[in-house]
Design goal:
CATH topology of the largest domain: Leucine-rich repeat, LRR (right-handed beta-alpha superhelix)
Number of strands: 8
Helix content: 25-40%
Number of helices: 11
Order of helices and strands: HHHHEHEHEHEHEHEHEHE
Number of domains: 2
Radius of gyration: 20 Å
Strand content: 5-15%
Strand order of the largest sheet: 1-2-3-4-5-6-7-8
CATH class of the largest domain: Alpha Beta
């Protein structure tokens, strides 16, 4: 049977994945990758079938459109996984993230946007288990705070893109940038709607992140010193900066 025929079969299987669990297991890794992308796009990955389409060489996993829970993350044993997208999965908690970090130590990109059940505990596990992390979004993870941020800054020296919008981080956490190894690498930092931040946090970012290009801190009511911010901005080469001064 030719590769094209196998691929046609794999695509058909994707539409009725739960009917063909044993057939999926027999597919070679290259076809599993194609099937995985097909199922991800159509929101067909589930707790029941995810382990069948993954293999040890899986590099990217997009489950933004899929209804999965911690059970799915506990079945991911992909040591070469580099990117995972879990945006909007309300059933994902710190328990699942902890299992993910333990099984996938080479993760570079993690999107937990809108995963509101994830707390400091899950982020701590990521920071300690995935030291090569480069991009992390925790937008809307409202129970994440300074403990998680300080651990990320202390453990992930390659971190360059971080979205903490809508979290509980304060000046204390942001001040960790002053001594963080990743401070020179930070290119994008989003802190929108972090309502406990003050001018002190903003000044810390500008003074310790010389390569920052995107900095967003809108909706932070304790940031008030417009003149000081304008002075800080003048020597900094930014592609985009957005803030609200109250």
């Amino acid at each position: 049977m030719g590769v094209d025929t196998l691929l046609d079969i794999a695509v058909r299987v994707a539409f009725n994945a739960d009917w063909y669990l044993s057939d999926i297991m027999a597919l070679p890794a290259s076809l599993k990758d194609k099937l995985l992308r097909n199922m991800s796009t159509r929101g067909m990955l589930t707790d029941l079938n995810i382990s069948l389409v993954l293999h040890s060489g899986t590099h990217t996993l997009d489950m933004m459109n899929c209804r999965v829970s911690d059970s799915a993350l506990q079945q991911i044993h992909c040591p070469q996984l580099r990117k995972i997208f879990l945006r909007g999965n309300l059933s994902i908690t710190s328990e699942g993230v902890r299992a993910l970090a333990a099984s996938c130590p080479e993760l570079n990109v993690v999107d937990l946007t809108g995963c509101s059940a994830v707390t400091d505990e899950g982020v701590l596990a990521l920071a300690r288990g995935c030291g090569t992390l480069e991009v992390l979004s925790l937008w809307g993870c409202s129970d994440v705070g300074d403990c998680a941020l300080l651990e990320l800054l202390g453990s992930c020296r390659f971190l360059h893109t971080l979205n903490l919008s809508g979290t509980q981080v304060t000046d204390e956490g942001v001040l960790g940038l002053a001594t963080a190894q990743c401070s020179n690498r930070i290119k994008e930092l989003q802190l929108a709607r972090c309502r406990r931040l003050t001018d002190k946090a903003v000044k810390t970012v500008f003074r310790n992140c010389p390569n920052i290009q995107i900095f967003i801190f809108t909706g932070c009511p304790l940031i008030t010193d417009q003149d000081a911010l304008q002075n800080l901005l003048s020597p900094v080469k930014l592609q985009h900066v957005s803030w609200t001064v109250y």
